[in-house]
Structure formats: structure tokens, C-alpha cells
Amino acid sequence: MSSLKSPFFLFVLAVLTAAALTALGPEEQSLGANVRIVYLHGAWVLTAEAALGLSAVAGLLGILTHRERLHHWSAALGRTGLFFWVTYLPLSLWAMQANWNGLFLSEPRFRLAVIFAVTGVLLQIGLMLLARPVFTSLFNGLFFVALRIGLSQADYVMHPPPSPIFSSGILSLQLFFIGIIFLTMVAAYFMTRWWLSK
Fold it and tell me: What is the pLDDT of residues 48-72, one digit of tens each?
């Protein structure tokens, strides 16, 4: 396979395209150009949640149908989702510093994100060492359910309730944000294909 067609190269290309598009994004009245970091941060965490959710679905289907391929998809999507979840944390810190001139590490949703990042990394390491596809599917599903429950119970302090962009009524802003989400989702797809090739 040509290196230019490899999933990892295409992942990097999609990420760079998303970053370039974000740099050209529309400014906002109160946050100015710094809102662009918020756009990327939002798309990044939505992509993480989507990958983790798909991992849970693939795992459940794999358990129900006994199809090995679905277990592999669950494992790959789980690792991809965790990558985006862990790397969304520095984006969150960057957004805090740029927009509020400080790091609010005790913010409920950020604290929850850190807990699930650490737990997720340890879980994925354990599942890789165990190398039991059914267990991987099962625990990927349980991890996603626990994450959704945690997010539903966490207070909104700095994070406005979802989604301020989609509820803004500004079509150009909404379409721009959808474009960023699309590119980060494409990046997640190529990362998942890379994990599947391992």
C-alpha cells in the first residue's frame, strides 16, 4: 500500500485539513478569534463520543451475532474514541486559557473527562493484554454507558448546555461547525482503519 494511501497518512491529512479550516472560521462577537478553538474542541469531543458509541454498538452486535469482525471493529473504534477523548483534554485547556485567561481544573465536566480518560487508557491497556474479543466488546459497551451516565449528571459551569452553536440560529456558523465535525469524523474513520490493520 502506498504511504499516501495509508490510513494513518489519511488520518493526519484529515486532521490538518480540519485545523486549517478552523483557522479560517468565523469569529464570534464576545470571544473573537478565540472561538475557533472552541469550534475544534467541540467537534473533537463529539467525534470521541461518536466513536465510543459506535464501539459499544459494534460490540453488542458482535456479542449477539458471534461475528468476530464486529469485535475487531469494537476494539478499533474504542481505541479511536479514547484517542480523541484523551487529546480533547489539551484542547479544552487551550480553550480555557485563551477565552477565560485561566485553567479551571475543578470544572465538573473537565474533571469527569479526566477521570474517564485515565480509566479508559487503563481499560484499553488491560483489554489489549487480555486479548479476548468478547470481553473487549463487553467492556467497551459498559465504558460508553458509564460515560453517558456521568455526562448526563455532570453540572454545566463553563460548558453551556448543548449545543450553543446549533441553537444560535446562524446558518453560516452551523454549516461551518458541521464541516469541522465531518472532517474530524473522517479522521476518526481513518484512525479506526489503521487500528484494524494492526
Answer: 999 999 999 999 999 999 999 999 9
Q: What is the pTM of this model?
A: 0.88
Helix axes 35-65, 7-23, angle to 10 degrees: 150
Long-range contacts of 28-37 (CB under 8 A, 24+ apart): 31/99, 34/95, 34/98, 34/99, 35/99, 37/91, 37/94, 37/95, 37/98, 37/99
The domain of 109 spans 3-196
Beta-bridge partners for 32 = 28
Structural domains of the chain, count: 1
Alpha carbons 164 and 159: distance in angstroms, whole number: 10
- CA–CA dist 84, 61 (Å, integer): 23
